[in-house]
Amino acid sequence: QTGTMLASSSQHAGTVRALAIDDSVLVTGSSDHRIRVWRPRRDVSAEEEDRKEQQRDFPFDIGGTRTVLAYGHAGPVTSLQLTPTALFSGSWDYCVRVWDRNPTADYTPGEESDSNSSDLRCMHVLHLDDMVSDMAFKGEKLFVANGGVVTLVDAGAGGGLKALSTLQSSRDDGDATITAVELSEDGQYIFYSTSE
User: Fold this and answer.
1) Phi, psi of 107 (to 5 degrees)
2) Which of 52, 146, 155, 167 could form a disulfide with 142 if both were Cys (CB 3.0 to 4.6 A apart)?
């Protein structure tokens, strides 16, 4: 309420371009191509808690080293969306990735399809025709702003990603990049902004 900064972090090696938060995680995406996931303070050990006395009111330990990393994007991570079981990430590498938020006990970090290692398991990758600038999630549908279009993606219960259709920007010249996308609460309307 006062606007007082409670915590800060310099964990990324680049500009933080995306944030997502719910009761169990704080997620950041950066121009360093990485995703960092912070758990709530209740998961922090007593020793770490004592060292962070001044940040007691902030629920996440963003200044500490207890982060989970997700590697796999080859460009800046520009958008993040959370669901109860998945984390969606969009990037300038023309991809949307879906990460398992609850990896099974027999999963070993680094066992994803890419050669890069990860603390989260990448379950699926959807390749698009342009850079991803933003995403919005409603029901089992993901709306992805990429280039001059919004791509409607089926992100159903199976965890897969399937492009269903695209909405072209209404600009006559066709050169406007869609920079942000959001849905109305009832899912009836799509709002977007462009670079023009």
Assistant:
1) -80, 135
2) 155
Q: Running along the chain, 196 residues long, what does each successive block of 10 average in pLDDT?
A: 61 78 85 82 55 55 65 93 91 94 50 43 92 93 93 78 83 75 91 88
What pLDDT score was predicted for residue 113? 34
Global pTM reads: 0.77
Full 3-state SS string of 119-148: CCEEEEEEECCCCEEEEEEECCEEEEEECC
**Distance, CA of 125 to chain centre:** 13
pLDDT at 16: 79
Residue whose entry in the numeric block shows the structure tokens 């050669």: 115
Residue 135 neighbours by CB under 8 Å, 6+ apart: 79, 80, 81, 88, 90, 96, 142, 143, 144, 145, 181
Residue 146 near residue 128 (C-beta atoms within 8 A): yes
What the block records as the tokens of 79 is 């958008």
